[in-house]
Amino acid sequence: MIRRTDPLDLLRRLPAPEPDPARMRATITAARARFTEGAPSRPAPRRRGWLIWLVPGATALAALALVVVLVPQTGSPRLAGNDPTQEEPALARDGAAPSGPIMGARPPQAAARSGTTVLAPARVHDFDGFQIGVHDQDGAVSLSFLRDGTATPFDRRSLDPGTGFELLDAFLTMSAQGELLLLQSRIGDTTNWDVFTVAPGGIRLSGALSMQVHDAPDRAAAARRLDVPR
Q1: Is residue 116 part of a domain?
Q2: Please, which residues bridge with residue 38 across strands?
Q3: Looking at the record, which segments are called Disordered (predicted)?
């Protein structure tokens, strides 16, 4: 009977190799010499010669050509209005246009004074310390408040065809809201009081106060409803 053996069992019969002290010392000495000397130096790069000067020279030449193209030549034609250094012709103080035509320019418009506007000739009504101007327009009427030489537009009302406007009464009074302008007018067959607040920023209609006095028969009744002096 044949006995089967594992081939790896033969390795046990081989003698274990013993380290060679001489070879180990030689290996350690060589490694120590390489570490002490350092990495070998790299070869110096080759010089590119004329190529180093070619790239900067080409860049400078391109920049010079760009400057020549962008800078306008002396005496070259320019379109009107495209020169940022050209000053626009100033208008005269009285609103007149400068001499000579300007192609494409709008004629100058006279500016209205602050607090005033251009309206049709008014029918002026005198009251205590102020005036009310009534300006008739197409299908409407505009009102302006005149005091101390200043005219301030404050109301505009549309009118039906054949309907007229009549200013009946107006007076100024002081209240908790400041100065008030009470104005009584008739449009057609309807008579109403309206209340406006007077302030440096303008004259504005007060709907809430107007509802309190709109059907008052006279200024005394309107003042009592607002609890203000008449």
Answers
A1: no
A2: none
A3: 1-21, 75-115
What is the pTM (predicted TM-score) of this model? Answer: 0.48
Residues of the chain with pLDDT under 70: 1-4, 11, 38-58, 64-121
Kindly state the DSSP code that residue 162 receives in the 8-state scheme. T
Q: Give how many domains the chain has, as a whole number.
A: 1
Tokens standing for residue 186:
């008739």
Q: What is the DSSP letter of 9?
A: G
User: Looking at the domain assignment, is residue 184 inside a domain?
Assistant: yes
- Rounded (5°) CA angle 175-207-172: 35
CA distance 33 to 96: 100
Q: Which residues contact 173 (CB under 8 A, 6 or more apart)?
A: 179, 180, 182, 223, 226, 228, 229, 230
Structural domain span for residue 128: 122-226
CA 154/CA 196 separation, integer angstroms: 9
| 177 part of a folded domain | yes
Place of tokens 């009081």: 193
In a domain, 95, yes or no: no
Q: Cα angle at 220 between 218 and 222, to 5 degrees?
A: 70
